[in-house]
Amino acid sequence: MPKYLDIVDDLRNNILYGKYKNADKIDDEKALGVTYSASKLTIKKAVDILVQEGLLVKKQGSGTYINSVASSNPLLDPSDLTKPSSLTHEYEDKTATSKVLEFEIIKANEYIAKSLLLKPGDFVYKVYRVRYIDNEANSIEEVYMPINVIAGLDQDIVNHSIYDYIVETLKLKPKSFHKYIYSRPCNSVEEKELKMKKHDPVTIVEQIAFLDDGVPYEYSLVSHYYKDFKYKTVVVI
């Protein structure tokens, strides 16, 4: 992973988790270069990304400051930028559990193979499970993962946090997520498991997830009851 992205992650965490206070001026590029043993160009790339995300504001002739709006505006929640795509971490103060409907190794069809940079017929895990928050059904996940990337997945892991297994056991680093969000009428499984009425809409989050080396490790479709679904993001133009 390029060094400037490591610096982005570290600076972002420092901003979000209290090293800097709102509206504090951050170190200048020369000082940051010493801190991170990096060139001025590398530091500039990192700072510019955080400016684009809305976490920093550059003031000509004065320096670079924390954007206080980033922590006070609910539509610009900077912590969303660092949250993993994981129900366990999204609801850290609650209990996340699973009911596994299907867990098997299958041959990837053409679409799944294309999404995961595989060949049709390559083997992938298929996980189909209901996710609960404090014993209330929250979503239904249909997940496909290449067995040559996510090795050793088993029933016990699938019953708990797959994300924690990837990070803590396999020591892999999820980095980015491409999401496509749309709605459709619920199917019979969603109607039953999410306690919906026939033809109620569900919100679908279709996602391809990538590791820090650019390798896709997950293709998933997650169904949410439309009344419970909220999604926030930051758009950079």
TrEMBL record:
SUPFAM superfamilies: Chorismate lyase-like, Winged helix' DNA-binding domain. The keyword DNA-binding applies. It comes from Breznakia pachnodae. Keywords: DNA-binding, Transcription, Transcription regulation. This is GntR family transcriptional regulator. CDD domains: WHTH_GntR. Residues 1-69 form the HTH gntR-type domain. PANTHER family: HTH-TYPE TRANSCRIPTIONAL REGULATOR GMUR, MANNOSYL-D-GLYCERATE TRANSPORT/METABOLISM SYSTEM REPRESSOR MNGR-RELATED. The keyword Transmembrane helix does not apply. It comes from the Bacteria.
